[in-house]
Amino acid sequence: MGDLEVRDDLLPADDGEASLHETLVSRMRQLMIEGTLENGQRIPEAELCRMFGVSRTPLREALKVLAVQGFVQLRPNRGAIVAPIDPDQIQPIFELKGALERLIGLTAAERVTQEDLDAIGALHHELGAALELGQMDEYTRLNYAFHKRLAQISGNALLCETYEGLQQRIWRYRFVVNEDFSRVADSFSEHEQIMIALRAKTPLDLAARLEAHNRRTCEAMLRAIQQIP
C-alpha cells in the first residue's frame, strides 16, 4: 500500500461544519469507498493516526461507527479490516432504498418550494454537462448530490439520515464496477422525468418514477458486478 491520500474531489459534500468525529468517519469511509484501503485489508491504525493527526482513541471510535455502517469488520485482538464487498448485499440494499424512494416521492412533491426547484434544477443542469463531457467521476458525485437534495426536500430528517446511509453503501460499489455509459445516459433521461414530476408536484407520479429509477440502477449494478473477474 502506498501513501494514503483522501481525494476531496470525490467526497460527497458535507452540509455545514462537521465535528472532528464526523470528519474522521467521513475521511476514513472515503478511503474505503475509493479503494485506497482495499477490501479485506487490515486497517493501518498507526498510519491513519499520523495522517489525520489524532490519537488511537478517536480513530477507534470512528472504526466502531464504520463497523455499524458496514464498512469495517472489527476483529477482537486482531485489529479491524475493511469489510469485503458482498455482491449479495446489493439487492437488499436497493430493495430498502426503493421503499425510501417512494416515500421521498410522496412527500417531496407536496413540500417542494421554488427555492428547492431552483437548487435541484441547477444540479440537474450540471449533471447534463458532466455527461456531455464524459466526466464520469463528476457525474457520480453530482448524482449523489442530486438524490441527497431530493431526499432533503421531503423535510423528514430521519428519512434523510437513513437514506444517506444506504447511499454511502451504494457509493462504495460504484467504485468497484464499471458502469455502462449507456446506462448513465438512460439514468439522466430518467432524471429528466423525475424533474418533470417534481415540478408538476404529482406525488404518485414522482414516487413511481423514483422507484423505477432505483430498480433500473440496481439491475445495472448487478449486471456490472457479475463482470468483475
Automatic annotation (TrEMBL):
<dbReference type="InterPro" id="IPR011711">
    <property type="entry name" value="GntR_C"/>
</dbReference>
<dbReference type="GO" id="GO:0003677">
    <property type="term" value="F:DNA binding"/>
</dbReference>
<protein>
    <submittedName>
        <fullName>Transcriptional regulatory protein</fullName>
    </submittedName>
</protein>
<keyword id="KW-0238">DNA-binding</keyword>
<dbReference type="Pfam" id="PF00392">
    <property type="entry name" value="GntR"/>
</dbReference>
<dbReference type="InterPro" id="IPR000524">
    <property type="entry name" value="Tscrpt_reg_HTH_GntR"/>
</dbReference>
<keyword id="KW-0804">Transcription</keyword>
<feature type="domain" description="HTH gntR-type">
    <location>
        <begin position="18"/>
        <end position="85"/>
    </location>
</feature>
<dbReference type="GO" id="GO:0003700">
    <property type="term" value="F:DNA-binding transcription factor activity"/>
</dbReference>
<dbReference type="Pfam" id="PF07729">
    <property type="entry name" value="FCD"/>
</dbReference>
<dbReference type="InterPro" id="IPR036390">
    <property type="entry name" value="WH_DNA-bd_sf"/>
</dbReference>
<keyword id="KW-0805">Transcription regulation</keyword>
<dbReference type="InterPro" id="IPR036388">
    <property type="entry name" value="WH-like_DNA-bd_sf"/>
</dbReference>
<dbReference type="InterPro" id="IPR008920">
    <property type="entry name" value="TF_FadR/GntR_C"/>
</dbReference>
